């Protein structure tokens, strides 16, 4: 069982599929020395949204947890999430929010606007890709690094 | 900082909410409750200088608060947002619709 501090190796961290992992992910991004302050904020915002989606729509996971990896190559920053969940592919599938450009909508039951997360990710990142797989599902976010 | 702290004071017939910490899917309900309650009562300013994160859930609350302000006729403003709050608002693609001011005097 992982505690508040996930297993972190260099530029990757293993996270549990719980809401608390968002705080742990933010700590991980803060620890990365490959990022400018603005890029760090972009990774926190977009990565936090993706992680929130995984926790809400991919559980229970078939993998032991979620692995987040960050790397920088020249002018690009890549943030990747690895996990295994059949339910996430169903959620994100052909008619799901990951296929259709989401329009924000007002949720009267909870009295707030929803559907902003993916919109924010698409504006923060250059590329957002979901690749389901038989052994592992992957989500990639590519950012243009601040010069 | 992992906890959200919200203090409320009355200043010149206006409610000022000072928010510190992250507004995320974990913490936004407290933010939602206090902002909606304030807007229903009076002109409201939300000081976001010390907010360390703003998720889509928090953005959704601010958008609803903006609409509630129009409905009730009360003023609503976001005061001196931190860099990450500014970035979150910009990332919606319609950041210019958010009522952002630098200081309380501008409200």
- The main sheet of chain A orders its strands as 1-2-3-4-8-7
The overall number of domains of chain B is 1
H/E element sequence of chain A? EEHHEEHEEHEE
Q: Uncertain segments of chain B of ≥5 residues (pLDDT<50)?
A: none
- List unreliable stretches of 5+ residues of chain A: none
Named at the architecture level, the CATH assignment of chain A is 2-Layer Sandwich
List the topology elements:
The complex is a heterodimer of chains A (147) and B (107).
Chain A: E1 7-9, E2 12-15, H1 21-31, H2 37-57, E3 66-73, E4 76-83, H3 86-92, E5 105-107, E6 112-114, H4 117-124, E7 127-131, E8 137-144
Antiparallel strand pairs in A: 1-2, 2-3, 3-4, 4-8, 5-6, 7-8
Helix pairs in contact in A: 1-2, 2-4
Chain B: E1 5-11, E2 14-23, H1 28-41, E3 43-54, H2 56-72, E4 76-79, H3 83-90, E5 100-101
Parallel strand pairs in B: 2-3, 3-4, 4-5
Antiparallel strand pairs in B: 1-2
Helix pairs in contact in B: 1-2
Brief overview:
The complex is a heterodimer of chains A (147) and B (107). With 147 residues, chain A is an alpha+beta fold.
């Amino acid at each position: 069982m992982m505690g508040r501090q996930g297993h972190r190796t260099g530029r990757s961290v293993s996270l549990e599929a719980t809401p608390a992992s968002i705080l742990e992910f933010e700590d991980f991004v803060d620890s990365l020395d490959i990022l400018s302050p603005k890029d760090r904020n972009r990774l926190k915002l977009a990565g936090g949204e993706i992680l929130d989606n995984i926790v809400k729509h991919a559980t229970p996971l078939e993998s032991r947890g979620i692995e987040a990896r960050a790397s920088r190559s020249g002018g690009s920053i890549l943030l990747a999430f690895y996990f295994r969940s059949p339910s996430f592919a169903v959620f994100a599938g052909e008619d799901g929010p990951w296929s259709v450009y989401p329009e924000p909508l007002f949720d009267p039951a909870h009295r707030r606007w929803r559907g902003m997360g993916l919109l924010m990710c698409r504006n923060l990142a250059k590329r957002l890709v979901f690749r389901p797989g038989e052994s592992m599902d992957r989500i990639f976010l590519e950012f243009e690094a601040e010069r | 900082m992992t906890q959200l702290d919200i203090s409320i004071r009355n200043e010149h017939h206006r409610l000022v909410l000072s928010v510190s910490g992250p507004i995320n899917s974990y913490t936004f309900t407290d933010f939602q409750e206090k902002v909606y309650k304030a807007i229903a009562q009076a002109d409201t300013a939300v000081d976001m200088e010390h907010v360390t994160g703003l998720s889509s859930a928090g953005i959704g609350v601010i958008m609803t608060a903006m609409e509630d302000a129009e409905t009730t006729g009360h003023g609503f403003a976001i005061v001196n947002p931190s860099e990450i709050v500014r970035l979150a608002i910009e990332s919606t693609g319609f950041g210019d619709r958010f009522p952002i001011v630098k200081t309380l005097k501008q409200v």
